[in-house]
Amino acid sequence: MHVVFGADHAGYPLKETLIQAVAAAGYSVEDLGTYSADPVDYPDFAAAVAREVAAGRADRGVVVCGSGAGAAIAANKLRGVRAAVAHDTYTAHQMVEHDDANVIALGSRVVGTALAEEVVLAYLGARFTGEERHRRRLAKIIALEEG
Predict the structure, then answer these.
(1) CATH number for the domain including 57?
(2) What are 14-17's contacts with CB under 8 Å, separation 24+?
(3) Which of 3, 32, 40, 50 can bridge 78 by disulfide, Cβ–Cβ 3.0-4.6 Å?
(4) What are the strands of the beta sheet with 2-7, ordered from one edge?
(5) Can you give the pTM of this predicted structure?
(6) How far apart are CA 2 and CA 18, in angstroms?
(7) Which domain holds residue 40?
(8) What is the pLDDT of residues 49-73, one digit of tens each?
(9) With contact defined as beta carbons under 8 Å apart, do 29 and 17 qualify?
(10) Cα 139 from Cα 143, distance rounded (Å)
């Protein structure tokens, strides 16, 4: 599984730690920035991650900003992206199993490093169940993109 990462300046330190943990777990990783704690705008990096996922060049994405909210909102603007904020392992796996989420957003000012690693690994280890009720609901979500 190929996983792309992006973060703003607030999320930069946590992103660096998460990349190491995910790579150590055997996943292919790609860092789309930012590459320092210098101030930048989170939509730029959330969009970069979302574009890779939407285009099929990455299987999953991880975005990190101060709260996770802004990055999730920005990522969700791209067709085919289903991003959600998760700061616990239950939400992290459930969002994939039931909602086929392909981008997770975390808040570096909300969740600690050790928990963030567990959350991201739970997200990456989860698979969409494909149950009829989840396919039906996912089809309704996808239809919303059509307007």
Answers:
(1) 3.40.1400.10
(2) 14/64, 14/106, 14/108, 14/113, 14/116, 15/62, 15/64, 17/113, 17/116, 17/117
(3) 50
(4) 28-31, 2-7, 60-65, 103-107, 83-85
(5) 0.98
(6) 14
(7) 2-145
(8) 999 999 999 999 999 999 999 999 9
(9) no
(10) 6
